Amino acid sequence: QVQLVESGGGLVQPGGSLRLSCAASGSVFSINTMGWYRQAPGKERELIATITNGGSTNYIDSVKDRFTISRDNAKNTLYLQMNSLKPEDTTTYYCNARTEYNDSYWGQGTQVTVSS
What we know:
Elements: E1 2-7, E2 10-12, E3 18-26, E4 31-39, E5 46-51, E6 57-59, E7 67-72, E8 77-82, E9 91-99, E10 104-106, E11 110-114
Parallel strand pairs: 2-11
Antiparallel strand pairs: 1-3, 3-8, 4-5, 4-9, 5-6, 7-8, 9-10, 9-11
C-alpha cells in the first residue's frame, strides 16, 4: 500500500505561481511512475504530467513550458511547480503513484484557484 498526501494548493492571481507537493509513504520502494492529474466538476480526470523513477518527464501541451514536475526520491515527495497560471487551470489537482505491480494510488486532491 502507498499513501499520498497533497499540499500547496490555494488561491493565486493570474500569472502567479504555486508549488504542489505530494508526500508518499508506505511501500514507496515499489513506486515506478508518479504523476499529476486534475479534474474539474463534471469532467474526466486529466493527466497533466508524469515522471519516471529515472526522471523522464512528459507533459500535456497546455501546461508544457509553464509547469514542471519533479520528484525527490530521498524525501519520497513529488512536486509540481506551476508558473504563469491561468484561470482555466482552476480545478482540483491529484497526485498518482503507479507501482511495479501496476497498482495505482491517489491522493485526496488539492484545490487550485486562479482568480483576480
